[in-house]
């Protein structure tokens, strides 16, 4: 292989990863802003039906991408108990997504993201009581600014709404609960599923739950949706784009998680060299690498750090874009609270990694 090919390969991979990250940001921020626009500004006040549209799209596109395109290998459900576990996760997932969409009717996106950033607090809480998993006191101490930041942001939020706040907190807690519950229910090697296969099985169950819920709790949804479709020529297109972005957000999240590890490992190997002496020197230089660590474990450490930074940056980008688009008023106190929460999340992740 020529030196030109060796040089171009990392460049092509870097370009591919950059494209994935752009897709990840665009999908997540796009579906969030479109949800807000439809639910608050467009007159489409049916968060349960909107979530049902999202889950329908996820079910359809997951089936196409796994069964026909074979994006990832199909992992079949092996037993009835495994299916019941997945169904349970699906119901919790529905509650989380519906709660988040309901909150967008009453809260600006910026404050919604600030509250959503407290997910690690609820994850640690549920892990403590459900799995009896204990962290170092430094790790729990890092959660103090996470909660304090939201309290400060709440006091400085001009558009604060109690019901919206309760729904947003509930959605955040449900998201954390689902994460911990998934680790408990699908803990055996034979039952573990990657995120795309899990979405394939959870989405149809979610649709079956959401259809009757929408018809009962939003009884005029069909009539109003058809009426809005006649009044606004782009109504159906917006719903289609919104639902497609919901799947794209899940897909890009999976792909970014999968591929950033390979890029990080490759960059790491290129920098330190492939011989053992270079790697040993790096382990002595970078104090957080365990003495027994191998390159794959270092790759995971880098991956977790990079992914955490990307996730926090995504939230900040969503806040800035939402303020520019919707022009909701913000205060210095609100910005300070959100910043404190994000810094607390970063500190929590770092403490959890160092003191585990």
UniProtKB/TrEMBL annotation:
Signal peptide from the UniProt entry: none
Topology of the protein relative to the lipid bilayer: Multi-pass membrane protein
One Pfam family hit: TPT
Annotated Sugar phosphate transporter domain residues: 17-264
Keyword Transmembrane helix (UniProt): yes
Stretches of the chain forming a coiled coil according to its record: none
InterPro entries: EmrE-like (IPR037185), Sugar_P_trans_dom (IPR004853), TPT_transporter (IPR050186)
This protein's record includes keyword Transcription: no
Spans traversing the lipid bilayer: 12-34, 46-71, 110-130, 137-154, 160-177, 198-216, 236-256, 309-326, 332-351
Localization of this protein: Membrane
Highest taxon above the source species: Eukaryota
Keywords assigned by UniProt, alphabetized: Membrane, Transmembrane, Transmembrane helix
Protein name (database record): Sugar phosphate transporter domain-containing protein
Species, as recorded: Hibiscus sabdariffa
């Amino acid at each position: 292989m020529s030196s030109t090919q060796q040089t171009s390969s990392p460049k092509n991979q870097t370009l591919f990863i950059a494209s994935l990250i752009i897709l990840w940001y665009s999908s997540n921020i796009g579906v969030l802003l479109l949800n807000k626009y439809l639910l608050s500004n467009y007159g489409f006040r049916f968060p349960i039906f909107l979530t049902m549209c999202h889950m329908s799209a996820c079910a359809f596109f997951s089936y196409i991408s796994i069964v026909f395109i074979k994006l990832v290998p199909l992992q079949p459900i092996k037993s009835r108990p495994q299916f019941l576990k997945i169904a349970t996760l699906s119901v919790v997932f529905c509650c989380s997504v519906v709660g988040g969409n309901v909150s967008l009717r009453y809260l600006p996106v910026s404050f919604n993201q600030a509250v959503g950033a407290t997910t690690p607090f609820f994850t640690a809480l549920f892990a403590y009581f459900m799995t009896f998993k204990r962290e170092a006191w430094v790790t729990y101490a890092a959660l103090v600014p996470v909660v304090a930041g939201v309290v400060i942001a709440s006091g400085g939020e001009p558009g604060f709404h109690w019901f919206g706040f309760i729904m947003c907190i509930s959605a955040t807690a449900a998201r954390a609960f689902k994460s911990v519950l998934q680790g408990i229910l699908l803990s055996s090697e034979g039952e573990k599923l990657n995120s795309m296969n899990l979405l394939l099985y959870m989405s149809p169950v979610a649709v079956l739950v959401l259809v009757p819920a929408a018809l009962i709790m939003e009884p005029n949804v069909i009539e109003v949706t058809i009426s809005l479709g006649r009044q606004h020529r782009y109504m159906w297109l917006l719903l289609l784009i919104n639902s497609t972005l919901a799947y794209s957000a899940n897909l890009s999240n999976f792909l970014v998680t999968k591929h950033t590890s390979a890029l990080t490992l490759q960059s790491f190997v290129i920098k330190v060299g492939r011989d053992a002496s270079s790697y040993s020197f790096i382990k002595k230089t970078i104090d957080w690498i365990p003495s027994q660590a191998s390159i794959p474990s270092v790759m995971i450490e880098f991956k977790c750090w990079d992914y955490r930074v990307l996730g926090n940056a995504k939230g900040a980008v969503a806040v800035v874009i939402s303020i520019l688009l919707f022009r909701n008023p913000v205060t210095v106190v609100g910005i300070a609270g959100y910043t404190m929460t994000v810094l607390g999340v970063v500190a929590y992740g770092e403490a959890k990694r160092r003191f585990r």
